[in-house]
Amino acid sequence: MEILKTTDLCKNYGGVQALKNVNFSMKKDEIVAIVGDNGAGKSTFVRNITGVEQPSSGKVEFYNDEINFSSPLEARSAGIETVYQNLALIDHLDVAANIFLGREIYYFKFGPLSWLNKRKMNKQAKDLLSKTGVTINQIDQKLVNMSGGQRQCIAITRAAGWGSKLIIMDEPTAALGVKETRAVESIIEGLKSNSIPVLIISHNLKQVFKLSDKICVFRQGQMVAQVNTKDVSEEDIVAEITGGKKEKQYAI
Ligand SMILES: Nc1ncnc2c1ncn2[C@@H]1O[C@H](COP(=O)(O)OP(=O)(O)OP(=O)(O)O)[C@@H](O)[C@H]1O
Ligand SMILES: [Mg+2]
What we know:
By secondary structure, this protein is α/β, with parallel strands linked by helices. It has eight helices and twelve strands. It has helices spanning 42-49, 72-77, 95-99, 118-131, 148-160, 178-193, 205-211, 234-242, and strands spanning 2-13, 16-27, 31-35, 57-62, 65-67, 80-83, 106-110, 113-116, 166-170, 198-201, 214-219, 222-228. The strands form three sheets. The protein has a six-stranded mixed β-sheet, sandwiched between helices. Strands 2-1-4-5 form a four-stranded antiparallel β-sheet, with helices on one face. Strands 7-8 form a two-stranded antiparallel sheet. Strand 11 and strand 12 form a beta hairpin. Helix 5 packs parallel to helix 6. The site of magnesium ion has 4 residues, from helix 1. Residues 42-43, 85, 170 line the site of magnesium ion.
């Protein structure tokens, strides 16, 4: 079953054509990697699926329904969790509050009156973090004091913790150390074994080859290749990324 499909997806920023007729598709039980040089249109592609921006033209289907989310929150309620390249976390809130953003648990909520159930949120946030193998000592610590890697781990925990229909990660390990990168990779493998599809953008080809079933290559706003990972070599992918000479022919 196709879970995400785009047909002739285009995005223009003024005169810049950041996405040109992208025809992408992914199935359930797949980890799909998007690769490409800086400025190739990868993050733009994600933003135009997840409601951060709206496409200039073209069609997006999610589990066979045509979608056009007007906000990231709408995409989340439809079951798409995204870890953005520029993290959408809130500095002045603590770890648990960030994990529960938009999903807060209340003792009661009545009009403007509400009382957050911090104890329950802290406990569940701790459980989620430990499930994803991330160690954060203080759950009530504000994010402003945390390192880039720790923040990234929290964002990934938030995305992976909620049994969603699709998880999108834009460069999830670019800012992480060796240990944290391994933790994130095992989170992704765990999601796959729980049949949660993952779309990952990464510049790290070793990681892409280790994790993905399919690779999509973006170059100058176009998707120039969509291949099964097992059918290609790193050299093939580098050639597609740079537009250089291909060593062999394979289906797009
Ligand atoms: N808000 C915007 N306004 C104008 N141009 C934009 C905007 N966002 C992106 N672009 C342009 O669109 C192109 C694609 O950018 P995008 O961020 O999608 O690249 P990317 O593949 O994610 O690159 P990277 O690997 O560096 O993250 C770039 O040329 C960029 O300058
Ligand atoms: Mg990007």
